Amino acid sequence: MRILVVGNGAREDALSWGLAQAPSCSAMFAAPGNAGTAARGPNWPIGATDGKALVARALEEKIDLVVLGPETAIAAGVGDRLREAKIATFGPNRSIGRLESSKIFSKRFMERMRIPTARSRVVHSLANAEKVLSDWRGGCVVKADGLAAGKGVVVAPDAPSALAVLREWYGPGGVPGGGSDVLLEERLEGREVSVFAIGDGKRFVPIAAACDYKRAGDGDTGPNTGGMGAYSPPYGFPDDLHEIVRERVLEPVTRGLAAESERYVGVLYCGLMWTASGPFVIEFNVRFGDPEAQVLVPRVRGDFARLLKSAADGELDEAAATFDGGACVGVVLATSDYPRSSTPLRDLSANVALPEGRVAFWGASSPRGEVVDAIGGRVLTVTALGNDVPSARTNAYAAVDDLARRMGSGVSLSYRTDIAKLDPETRAPPEGY
Fold it and tell me: What is the value of pTM for the model shown?
């Protein structure tokens, strides 16, 4: 099977790595790819949103399966163009991609299908927001409607704090992702977890779950980022986590898509808050998460490529692969100024090979012989397997120390030191949104 992965981040590096190891994979390609994907096959100099060019090259190269990585490709309708050209594609069409690309569309869909989710209000201007927040009680989650690269959500402890965020957004800087629509949600109490399900156009099958860390600093301090680390499987959740999510979330989603004549092929990322009353959906994403993909893919046992191809063909083969290879912890190494800005780094060592069971995935980057130029922001995600979460965590941070020494004192990378750190008494991560 000749496979193309679309995108250039650590998520796409992880997907490429996992697919390349599949028995059914004969050749790997990436567009535009990065320093990691280049080690497995050609990188095409085509942007992830350039559907026309991707179709032309995929037909020329006789690609058997395209896997869409970033949400921007889905929002740009790349999946639509590929399917029109009869190319098997793992990733949904643009229309249902609005489950991620529009927070308001997604919220209205959940309300129609009676999927558990936080109460909310939509505002379109600062004056509108001031009126809505005048009698708001409790915490408020402020969400930009459009895609904002993981930076369009702010969790405010109270209404005045939320209003301060909105004054900034409705000022000269603009609302993240563009437009003027903002969703205000009640703040839920509980623990976050993400459950991933594969859809083949007829049904969804939950495959794995993970917990990620969005704040820049230890103890969930500092600004929101695209994600500073993750671990899988989640710790301290019910044994029947997947079945509960299937019943309360995935089955209503399936009914709703059928009612609206939508055919969903790809992975559905269910971002949940697990409360005393069970799961509430915080968000839907229509692709593998980053950094979640980096801790899910190393856990795959079986033929990952056949699993995704069977979904793209409309008949998911659940037996093709499972996600049961122990526990995995991933730690993101970022530039010291991330997320305030992203300083490019040049001449990084291309040698990020680690002992078996440990893998480093490159973020946006390009190889130049023995060195790599990184665009900046999240540079590497260092992952490690273990028999359980604590042992995987120990292995991951040992790998971080190894890579930090190899990168040299002239390279300044920052990372959180508390990824997958469990409370010594409860044996669970801290709670919170």
Answer: 0.94
